[in-house]
Amino acid sequence: MPTGFGRLWTAQTVSSLGDGVSHAALPLLALTLTRDPMALAVVTAAGTLPWLLFGVLGGALVDRWDRRRTMWVTDAARAVLLATPAAAAALDALSIPLLAAVAFLLGLGGLFFDTAATAYLPDLLGRDPAVLERANSRLRGTQTAASGFAGPPAGSALLALGRAVPLLADAVSFAVSALLVRSLPAAPRPVPQARESLLRQARAGASYVFRDRLLLGLALRPAVGNVAFVAVETVLALFAREHLGIGTFGFGLLLTAEATGGLLGAAVASSLGRRLGTGTALTCTAAVEGLAVLGLAAAPNPWSAGLALAVCGAGMGATMVLAPSLRQAIVPAHLMGRVASTSRMLAMCAAPFGAFLGGWLATTSGVRTPLYAAAGLLLAMTAVTATMTTDRRIEAALRAAARAAEPAATPATEPAAARAAEPAATQAVTPATAPDRPEAEGRVPEAAV
Fold it and tell me: Which residue from 88, 129, 283, 285 has the fewest beta carbons nearer than 10 Å?
């Protein structure tokens, strides 16, 4: 891998470990203050609000700022932020409003860091889809291991040592990440666009996604998927207890099976894309997810349920490597942050609908019904998006990206090429003139989770 990736990989791994610690610690800290379910829900929901409120605007700001600086300043700010609840915990002054405010600000920092990291990766590694897939496979695998396996148990264990301890541990992880990111090579700033308001630039980024069938197909998968998966998660604990006879410890093992499948899926994603083609691989992983949830709904015992969740996790893990890598290879650099944040915001906005759907179906029709509905939704989404993310469309977009990147390869002509390309790039994202076909757009690369 190119120089610098190891430091970025280490930084994100350390930060993910801290995220896993705080993900477990914040709800447990809230539980020491209240037993009110609504108060606990406020703390949990506060962390997702920044994406719903500022997702696209955050992407527009990232497209204006230096991406490496955005990452390390954000992590440094989060490290300082966590000192407040840590001090309050030490002084026995914690409160639900304080925890909710901290969760909201951590989520806001995550919005800027994740969007900037997604946009910075192709700046660091180049636009080769194979290299991006290898990088995203490693990043996704360690993120799952750190935040899904190691972080939550560590957060619970550290909380036993004192209420401030997990918060301080997370602060240290952010500080280490900030130092590592600060040492990364600087990336070129995006070519400045014509002077536009932040809102207009944000709308241009969102329009770019909705007018491109390939990017829209890539965005619909996690959006519709979140409706289905959150519907399943809403009733999974109840389903496990009532229909599978699983207790608290067994439920933890059930979730571990899904995370294990996710690690496997991330590891084989690149190979799957090479063998089948990225578009075919994405269609297959989406179909696998739908069939796995259908198997979970019909599972007669814990073993078959665990296997179904592992298969579903593998499909999700592979998808979350292939789709972001493809975006990083076809979206123009000056739109990178906005496209990434628009895709992420769509997925985040879909989650509450999934929670409502799961709760309503379980109440009116039984606990298995949300699982069957989720499977049907995933399979329908697979059929719809299969025509939007075909291998042929992807190959055309990659060729267009390569052609658009060619002038930048000659340093002597780079300034003139950038100046000549700027009006065309501005025109490409104007809703009245943006083309529907990626083949006609001459577009370049992007990233997103």
Answer: 88
d(CA 52, CA 75) in angstroms, rounded, equals 21
Distance separating alpha carbons of residues 130 and 42, to the nearest angstrom: 41
Report which residue type is found at 435: P
Alpha helices (H) in 183-298, listed in sequence order? 198-210, 213-243, 248-276, 278-297
- What whole-number distance in Å separates Cα of residue 279 and Cα of residue 392? 8
Residues 6+ apart with CB under 8 A from 365: none
> Of 345, 235, 254, which is closest to residue 308 (Cα–Cα)?
254
* Residue 431 pLDDT grade (very low, low, confident, very high; cuts 50, 70, 90): very low
**178 touches 50 (CB < 8 A):** no
Q: Which one, of 12, 279, 278, 273, lies nearest residue 121 by Cα?
A: 12
The answer to whether the pTM exceeds 0.85 is no
| pLDDT per position as a tens digit, 287-339 | 999 999 999 999 989 899 999 999 999 999 999 899 999 998 998 888 888 88
CA-based nearest residue to 90, from 24, 175, 170, 165: 165
Q: Under 8 Å CB-to-CB from 6, ≥6 apart: which residues?
A: none
| Per-residue buried b or exposed e for 211-247, using 16+ beta carbons within 10 Å of the residue's own CB | bbbbbbbbbbbbbbbbbbbbbbbbbbeebbeebbebe
Q: Which two tokens stand for residue 246?
A: 């699983």
